[in-house]
Design a protein that fits this description.
The structure is a single chain. The chain is mainly β and about 80 residues long. Helix content is about 0%, strand content about 35%. It has no helices and four strands. A hairpin with a 5-residue loop joins strand 2 (about 25-35) and strand 3 (about 40-45). Bound molecules: zinc ion (ZN). Zinc ion (ZN) binds near residues 45, 48, 50, 67 and 72. The site of zinc ion has 8 residues, from loops.
């Protein structure tokens, strides 16, 4: 899968995904091209390590891509703000 030019997208995120212990063992890069309904994403599952590329429509937020291997879904929630110390 080819990465888009950011200027051709209306959604782009690239973030680490935590497993249930809170360790960032997975990641997702997800974007949507301008004028398209479906999102493209490259997911590394934080639970089983499986990698998949997919094009999929998500009806509403938060978006929840599902791992084809272990069938767990990950939640693309709003980015948490870092707590200031
Ligand atoms: Zn998985």
């Amino acid at each position: 899968m080819k990465f888009p030019n950011i200027s051709d997208t209306n959604y782009f995120t690239n973030r680490a995904l935590d497993n249930k212990e809170g360790e960032p063992t997975g990641k997702i890069i997800m974007w949507r091209m301008k004028g398209e309904e479906a999102f493209n994403y490259i997911l590394k599952c934080p639970f089983c390590g499986h990698e998949q590329e997919k094009k999929e429509e998500f009806a509403k937020k938060p978006y929840r891509p599902r791992c084809e291997n272990c069938n767990k879904s990950v939640v693309i929630a709003k980015i948490k703000k870092k707590k200031e110390k």
